[in-house]
């Protein structure tokens, strides 16, 4: 009978330390306390695993404006290089811990399905990616240090423009006029508002479906409709099927089954997350990073349906305005951390329903100042439409990325579709 290998314990993280460099950097900072403030951005928590106590004493003294005591070690000749080496070793320890403590034992557990091990590997990789991103966020950089990255970005955008003939640099929405105004959904917080029944969720589903079919991971967080109902909207939109007939049982399911089979592969990046009071922005970030790692994408699209419902499930403050403000701040930070767009549906106050006005946003103070773009769906009675279709305008009333303007649309509620109008 074959012998089954037992799960093994790995301590790879212990190999990625450097006592001499830790002591050398501590000695250099002790001799010249000004180095502490110059190198602090390069030294996250966990940089000194072997001399944590000695570094803590030196850092505490300097921050208290007291001279650090002598340490008796030889100062590092190049403190900045020493700091960068310790930061690099820290990142390697994160990778080693993820592999040695969790992934490798699971790999050697032959009773565990390989699919579960792969999923665990993706989750751990996403966690390490998040930790590495946290190291870079908040660091102070000299302006010339940014030049190389800026030039690479400009060249990439120029190549994309020459290839496609349009300036969509963010995640495309599938609505050409809107993409021309925004440059696609770029990293940041985007608001979509309208009165009830105007088609906000339909438009958000359509944008998410288009992004997923372009290969971008999409997380659609729903506090409004069930995942099944949203999936129904997406398929009806893609295939031009009448949602109402299927909901009422007046259409044969076989046609819908064929439509689902035809679109299943392309819609794999589209994930639906049921919103609950337990959902946090940190949990959402972890899910987004896992999706990005799984689909090998450098960004994703997060859709919140809708903002005030999520805020209402939270209890950090008694004042609802503060709750909304805190959530908006978290979503902006989430967009920054992921370098990705967050599209949040917002309700309007009663006085402003049906208007394209920033002050119509519920709890408008934090929303109108924090959003990178604000989009409003409003009816347009001046353009003809055959019932049940309705002429609507998607108005861009705030845009940090370019011009303001309007995308004329035709809302087809029976097939869950927002199409560009043939004429303005």
Please summarize what this structure is.
The chain is an alpha/beta fold and 424 residues long. It is built from 15 helices and 9 strands.
Characterization of this structure:
The protein folds into two domains: 125 residues, DNAb Helicase, Chain A (Orthogonal Bundle), CATH 1.10.860; 250 residues, Rossmann fold, CATH 3.40.50.300. It has 424 residues and is of the alpha/beta class. It is elongated and about 85 Å long. The protein has 15 helices and nine strands. Helices cover 47% and strands 13% of the residues. Helix 8 crosses helix 9, helix 9 packs across helix 11 and helix 12 runs parallel beside helix 14.
Name given to the CATH homologous superfamily of the largest domain = P-loop containing nucleotide triphosphate hydrolases
Query: What overall geometry do the principal axes of the alpha carbons give?
Result: elongated
Determine the fraction of residues in helical runs and give it as a percent range.
40-55%
Residue runs with pLDDT of under 50 for 5 or more positions: none
* DSSP E strands, number: 9
Structurally, the number of domains stands at: 2
- Largest sheet composition: 9 strands, mixed
Q: Which oligomerization state do the chains in this entry correspond to?
A: single chain
């Amino acid at each position: 009978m074959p012998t089954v290998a037992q799960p093994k314990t790995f301590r790879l993280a212990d190999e990625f330390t450097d006592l001499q460099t830790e002591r050398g950097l501590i000695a250099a900072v002790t001799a010249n306390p000004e180095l502490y403030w110059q190198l602090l951005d390069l030294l996250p928590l966990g940089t000194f695993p072997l001399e944590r106590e000695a570094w803590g004493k030196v850092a505490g003294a300097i921050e208290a404006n007291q001279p650090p005591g002598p340490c008796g070690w030889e100062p590092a000749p190049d403190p900045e290089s020493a700091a960068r080496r310790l930061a690099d070793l820290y990142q390697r320890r994160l990778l080693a811990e993820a592999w040695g403590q969790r992934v490798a034992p699971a790999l050697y557990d032959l009773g565990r399905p390989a699919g579960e091990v792969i999923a665990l590997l993706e989750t751990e990789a996403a966690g390490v990616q998040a930790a590495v991103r946290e190291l870079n966020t908040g660091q102070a950089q000299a302006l010339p240090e940014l030049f190389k990255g800026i030039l690479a970005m400009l060249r990439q955008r120029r190549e994309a423009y020459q290839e496609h003939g349009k300036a969509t640099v963010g995640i495309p929405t599938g609505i050409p006029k809107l993409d021309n105004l925004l440059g696609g959904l770029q990293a940041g917080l985007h608001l979509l508002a309208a009165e009830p029944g105007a088609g906000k969720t339909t438009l958000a589903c359509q944008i998410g479906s288009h992004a997923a079919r372009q290969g971008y991971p999409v997380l659609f967080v729903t506090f409004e409709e069930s995942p099944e109902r949203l999936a129904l909207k997406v398929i009806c939109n893609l295939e031009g099927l009448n949602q109402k007939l299927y909901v009422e049982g007046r259409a044969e399911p076989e046609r819908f089954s064929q439509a689902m089979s035809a679109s299943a592969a392309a819609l794999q990046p589209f994930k639906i997350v049921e919103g609950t009071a337990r959902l946090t922005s940190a949990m959402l970030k972890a899910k987004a990073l896992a999706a990005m790692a799984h689909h090998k994408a450098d960004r994703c699209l997060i859709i919140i349906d809708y903002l005030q419902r999520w805020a209402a499930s939270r209890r950090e403050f008694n004042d609802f305005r503060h709750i909304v403000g805190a959530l908006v701040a978290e979503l902006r930070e989430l967009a920054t951390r992921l370098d990705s767009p967050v599209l949040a549906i917002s309700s309007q106050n009663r006085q402003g329903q049906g208007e394209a006005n920033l002050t119509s946003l519920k709890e408008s103070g934090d929303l109108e100042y924090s959003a990178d773009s604000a989009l409003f769906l409003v009816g347009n009675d001046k353009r003809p439409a055959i019932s049940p279709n309705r002429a609507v305008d998607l108005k861009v009333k705030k845009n940090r990325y370019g011009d303001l303007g309007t995308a004329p649309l035709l809302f087809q509620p029976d097939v869950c579709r927002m199409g560009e109008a043939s004429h303005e």
